[in-house]
Amino acid sequence: MAIKSIPQRAGTGIAAAMMLASCPAPAAAQTVQELQRQIDELKAQIKALTDAQKGAPAATAPVAAVPAPAPQVAASTAAPSSTPPPTAPQRVAAVAKPPSARAPWYERMRLRGYTQLRYNGVLDAQDAPGETGSRLRSVHDASINDDGGFLLRRVRLVLQGDITDRLQLYFQHDFGAAVNNQSSTERRENFGQLRDVYVDWFLDPERRLRLRFGQSKVPFGWENLQSSSNRLPLDRSDAINSGVPGERDVGVNVYYTPAPVQAIWDRLIKNKQKLFGNYGAFGLAVYNGQGTNRTERNDSLMKVAMATWPFALDGLGPVFEGQVLELGGSMILNRFRPELRSGISPVEYRDDRVGFHAILYPQPFGIQTEWTTGWGPQYDMALRSVRSQRLGGGYVQLMTDLGRTPIGRAIPYARWQRYRGGWKANVDAPRLETDEWELGTEIQLVDALELTLAYARMERREADSRRTGRATGDLIRTQLQFTY
Question: Where does this protein have coiled-coil stretches (predicted)?
């Protein structure tokens, strides 16, 4: 007589156990305790047979454990109890759990933003003499005028996140933009305008090397790359911002950040320093060259290069413990067609600039400076036309981080700026002549609420080719920023 194999005997035992479980003795002859004891014995037998089957040399098809039915106890014979009879727990066959899939891309997106509310109080102002004399105006703040009032300087909303492990999306809209020529050139405030839309394609797992495609900030000038939500002074400097008014254009970038640089930047972020944002220690880019949300007007591309490197100064002695000095520079090669009162200029003008920056982060004292020089389109009053001319200027800024105070974290600053050159974003690329002092402090009342108070002494030429001379004025400037 042939002897059955272990798997065959195990399968027969399981089948017998299932038949026994499905044909219990009449409920009237048993108590609840006896039924539960039988169920436990059947479960133990099934477990033993299943373990024997797993250890068999011959592979067999897995058998799903069938839950033992809970016998129904007749109401007339069941023992009286204040609680219902317990139901036998169901046993589910053990199945190998697949590796957890990554969350869908739309669950990896993050929505955030910030809003800036401003008010400028003019203490005194003196326009340049004559009917066409310059009035006290700024290319960065439309509320600096005779009427003043509150201004929503920025209303930004950002959608950002990883589409895949190697692809990241950044989408930013501003609802604080203005448009003109609605009715006798009257402005209309708070229109939506695209600021950024790009994807970063990371070429390595460490995300040190990336390609960027779309509309994004042009890597020219350290302050230009720094977010307005993170900047100490209320506005960017005229000289640095004149190279890329609006800071953005459409193109392709490549950025690289070595590990030692990233380590220092991570340390600064941990210490709550205001960085310029990670645009790489080295960057190369090509853009259309006409500026933010403007149609390309020629067949040439703007070429941009940038390099920046932070140096940890800990090795210089106890005085420099924790200090970081960042040095770098940038360059633009471009041909630009400005907007004229008669339309877009048919002539391309040289628009080549170089700049450098140096930042000693405030821990607690710091200094920041940038300067630029080069050639750019500029209106010539004598010739009554635009031509490429020399330009130059920059700023020096001192700041100190006082840390926590009774009213919040306070960071006082003082900045002086100077610029002589054209402002290519305005009609006829008018010449600016700016000398300005600003003393202020940023107070972080709570994590999401920030107040900036500043005094400014301005001497400015209005950005209008029909105006002459310079206006002067003293202002108290305020800004409340809330982030979300």
Answer: 25-52
